[in-house]
Design a protein that fits this description.
Strand content: under 5%
Helix content: 40-55%
Radius of gyration: 20 Å
Number of helices: 7
Length: 127
């Protein structure tokens, strides 16, 4: 029961997971499987998987907490760009060598992503 007296976990009327599923999801994350793969395997939305693995949901007294060194790196799998690629994108687009659409195809990201990089809405240099 939650603090408000409502059923939670498996007892909640809208629960699609069991504690066994939750423990297996966390074990798979410990073994290095991506959150996207885990979400697909259990047929749950991506952010449901993220919340379960990071103990934002499905918390219970006596259950182990995540090890920060394991879960800190789980977000890295989704980044298709790094600082070297960002600098290259900005330099090439700024020199007029290539269009945003061509850069998006080359790097496997959306046109919006390239636009945000070029206009420094993302990947901002902190002063």
């Amino acid at each position: 029961m939650s603090a408000g007296g409502w059923p939670n976990g498996e007892l909640h009327h809208r629960a699609t997971l069991t504690w066994e599923d939750v423990d297996l999801m966390r074990d798979l994350a410990d073994e290095g499987l991506s959150m996207r793969e885990i979400a697909d395997k259990f047929e749950v939305p991506y952010f449901t998987c993220v919340d379960v693995i990071k103990f934002k949901t499905w918390r219970a007294t006596g259950r182990t907490k995540p090890r920060p060194e394991v879960y800190r790196d789980l977000w890295k799998f989704s980044a298709k760009l790094d600082w070297d690629k960002v600098r290259d994108i900005r330099a090439r687009y700024g020199a007029g060598e290539v269009s945003m659409h061509a850069l998006a195809r080359e790097y496997g990201v959306s046109h919006r992503c390239i636009s945000n990089v070029v206009h420094e809405r993302t990947w901002q240099v902190r002063q």
